[in-house]
Amino acid sequence: MHPNTRSFVALLALWSGAATPASVGGIIVSTSMGTNGGLTVTSATVGTPEPGNDNVPGLSANTLFYMETYNDVATGAARFAHAEGPPTEYSVTLVVTNETGVVWTDYALFVGLGNIDFPLFVDYFAFDFDMPPTISGAGGLPSWSSPDANWLVWSGLEVEPGSTIQFEFNLDLLAENISGDWLIHQRPTAIPAPATAAVLLASAACLSMSRRTRRSSERSR
After folding, report:
1. CA separation for the pair 139, 189 (Å, rounded)
2. Which of 17, 20, 22, 5 is closest to 176 using CA atoms?
3. Is 86:52 a contact under the CB 8 Å cutoff?
4. Of residues 112, 59, 57, 51, the one with CA closest to residue 86
5. d(CA 140, CA 217)
6. Cβ neighbours of residue 56 under 8 Å, at least 6 residues apart?
7. Using one digit for the tens of pLDDT, what is the confidence trace for 1-10?
8. Minimal CA–CA distance to 76: which of 180, 153, 183?
9. Which among 200, 191, 198, 140 is positioned nearest to 165, based on CA atoms?
10. pLDDT 10s digits, 19-71
11. Does the pLDDT of residue 123 top 80, yes or no?
């Protein structure tokens, strides 16, 4: 790799909240708990009994697990660190509790550089759709889409306040020259809270009444 290219990759990693890439990488060695944005990770574990198992059928024997609570409808992230090793695939489970007080209709996940608002595509850290992702615990008619391998977007959800949903998907760490701290970015989308909806309806009614009054006044002149 050209020296200038290495420098550019390092700068992008720092911007995404990741450590500067160094040496080789592909095996997750640790996870982190704590709050990032609206999301709090309360429990996290990782196991890698089969390093170098890229492109296995079904769920991977390597596991990455997070127990999460969302307290605010905002972008959040779960953190992990990976280090030297061959390209490896993980089965990821996210157990997410909605404590935001509003109903969620969509849930987006993003991996790679940048963040969910300013994403930058990478081909060495990606969702693996050989096995379709699953969701449980959500009402509605859930369906998923993926604009590219860095995105997994669930829509058609009805996730009530206080309820818990579970995501399962496979994740590939494909590169052998990247290491450091990386994030699984997440963001729910909520319908307006009842009070907010009432305010919006009242505003629309006032605007409509104002227009009718103005037209009536103009006709009476």
Report:
1. 14
2. 22
3. yes
4. 51
5. 47
6. 50, 89
7. 444 444 434 3
8. 183
9. 140
10. 333 334 489 999 999 999 999 999 999 999 999 998 888 889 999 999 999 99
11. yes
SS (H, E, C) 112-130: CEECCCCEECCCCEEEECC
Residues in the chain: 221
Domain ranges of the chain: 3-190, 192-221
Q: How confident is the model at residue 172 (pLDDT cuts 50, 70, 90)?
A: very high
Place of tokens 């990478």: 122
Six token digits for residue 66? 């997070």
Is pTM beyond 0.85 here? no
Tell me the sheet residues that pair with 126.
Answer: 172
Q: Which of 115, 20, 37 is nearest to 76 (CA)?
A: 37
**CB-CB contact of 14 with 1 (8 Å):** no
> Do the Cβ atoms of 155 and 106 come closer than 8 Å?
yes
Which residue type sits at 210? S
Q: 26 burial class (0-12, 13-18, 19+ CB within 10 angstroms)?
A: buried
pLDDT > 70: what percent of the chain?
A: 74
Separation of CA 218 from chain center: 53
Output the CA torsion sign for 80, 181, 73, 107: negative
What is the Cα gyration radius of the chain?
22
